[in-house]
Structures are given as C-alpha cells and as structure tokens.
C-alpha cells in the first residue's frame, strides 16, 4: 500500500504528534473501519466554489450554505438556503435541480453535465476504501486542514473529468468527516465544510426522488431514450 500522507497543521501536533500518526497502515485501517460502518450522512454544510472562466463566462466564486443528506451508494439531497433557496436531489442516475423561487425544475441525467455532483458522490462513497480508487499524494500548504485535523490528499487512479484531486479532512480523534476539497480536471474547486454530522440517518421513502407541484415548469434535459424509459415505468 502506498504511503499515506498525514498533515497536522496545529503547531502542537507538529511538535508532539500522536503515536498513531507514524503508522500509516493503522491510519488506513482506522478509516476503513470507521467508514465501512457508515451507510449515510446528514450534515450542515458550507461550500466555497471557484469556477474558472469557460464558454464565454467569467471566472467566479460562490458561497453556499445548507443541509446535506447522503445514503450509500449514490443517493443525495442538497438543500441550500444561501445564496438562494434551491435543492439538488439525485438517485445516482437522475438529478433534479429544484428552484422554488422560479417554480421551476430541471431534470438531468447524472453524467458529464453534472460533474460537481459526480465528484461529491464519488468522494463520499469512497471513504470506506480510499485505496480502491485513489492514490495518496502530498498535501500542499493550501490544502492543510484546520488545527487538530487529519489531512489526506489524493488523486484518482483512473482519469476522470469531475475530479483531478481530492482532499479530505477528518477530526483527529474520532475521524469525523470535517470537509472535502474537490478539484476538477479543468480547475473548478468545490470545498465543503461539514458540521452537526449525523451518521446513518433515517430517510423517508422517496427522499431521493422528486415530483414537481402542479403548475411548475419542468425542463427535462435527459437524453430522449431516458425520458422514454421513465414514461414507460410510470
């Protein structure tokens, strides 16, 4: 197994690191044991997004605040209150972008057009077995986590457009998930900070699907074949 790079940013940790910090294999085993028992996560989040200039759009930064619910393998619901109310719901194959202020729902197939979502799902799903999909690399100074945290920087073993680099921050003691930094191949950055984490939450039936209210505008951006399959299943 390739060496796990651990970075502690607190000065005390640098001077007097915990005994287990030197044993990379033990760290990996602890992470696998901790997240092998995690089938879902609910948490409050903040997201700092940086988008590079592309397709005639200028580079921009966006800060979002909301709640996240994820259930293995690929079920996700993001409810944002800042910068404006909106929700993203996904069952791993279909994504609904819900904009209440516009009474509008846009439906996408989870694929190249939903790279930020795919990157987040891959990061959360891979926590129980980081070595399966990622190779560990050295964290940069910019990537160091908050004081008392454990920083793991990785790159995918196989090239993927939605993620060129992944940084994960864990709480030093109980290995709670503190945050993620996902950098796409083109340089877009989505950095999440988590708080009020609840593991293996109960989720009601239908939580990861969406039926728009009557009268809302619906824009279905899925390929025609997917729309036909959906119609036959209803």
Structure description:
This protein is α+β, with helices and mostly antiparallel strands and 234 residues long. It has a single domain (11-52, 60-198, 215-223), classed as outer membrane lipoprotein receptor (LolB), chain A (Clam). It has helices at residues 11-15, 24-36, 115-125, 130-133, 224-233, and strands at 40-51, 60-71, 75-82, 86-90, 94-99, 104-109, 134-137, 149-156, 165-171, 177-183, 189-199, 217-220. A hairpin with an 8-residue loop joins strand 1 (40-51) and strand 2 (60-71). It is globular. The chain starts with 10 loop residues before the first helix and ends with a helix. Mean pLDDT is 84; it is low at 1-23.
Give the CATH class. Mainly Beta
Gross morphology: globular
Strand order of the largest sheet: 7-8-9-10-11-1-2-3-4-5-6-12
Helix/strand class: alpha+beta
| Fourth-tier CATH superfamily name | Lipoprotein localisation LolA/LolB/LppX
Number of helices: 5
Q: In sequence order, what are the helices and strands, one letter per element? A: HHEEEEEEHHEEEEEEH
- In this structure, how is the largest beta sheet organized? 12 strands, mixed
- The fraction of residues assigned to DSSP E strands is 35-45%
Helix content: 10-25%
Number of strands: 12
Q: Which spans of ≥5 residues are poorly predicted at pLDDT below 50? A: 1-23
- Oligomeric nature of the chains: single chain
Q: What is the CATH-assigned architecture?
A: Clam
* Average of the residue pLDDT scores: 84
């Amino acid at each position: 197994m390739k060496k796990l790079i651990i970075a502690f940013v607190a000065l005390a940790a640098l001077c007097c690191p915990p005994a287990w910090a030197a044993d990379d294999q033990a760290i990996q085993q602890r992470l696998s044991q901790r997240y092998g028992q995690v089938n879902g996560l609910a948490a409050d989040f903040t997201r700092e997004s940086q988008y590079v200039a592309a397709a005639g759009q200028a580079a921009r930064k966006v800060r979002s605040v909301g709640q996240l619910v994820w259930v293995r393998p690929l079920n996700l619901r993001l409810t944002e209150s800042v910068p404006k109310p909106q929700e993203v719901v996904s069952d791993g194959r279909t994504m609904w972008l819900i904009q209440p202020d516009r009474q509008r729902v846009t439906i996408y197939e989870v694929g190249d057009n939903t790279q930020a979502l795919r990157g987040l799902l891959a990061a959360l799903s891979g926590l129980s077995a980081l070595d399966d999909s990622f190779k560990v690399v050295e964290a940069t100074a910019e990537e160091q986590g908050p004081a008392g945290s454990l920083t793991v920087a990785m790159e995918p073993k196989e090239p993927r457009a939605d993620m060129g680099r992944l940084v994960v921050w864990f709480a030093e003691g109980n290995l709670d998930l503190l945050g993620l930094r996902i950098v796409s191949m083109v340089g877009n950055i989505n950095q999440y900070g988590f708080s009020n984490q609840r593991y293996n939450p109960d989720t009601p039936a239908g939580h990861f699907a969406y039926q728009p209210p009557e009268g809302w505008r619906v824009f279905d951006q899925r390929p025609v074949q997917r729309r036909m399959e959906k119609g036959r299943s209803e």
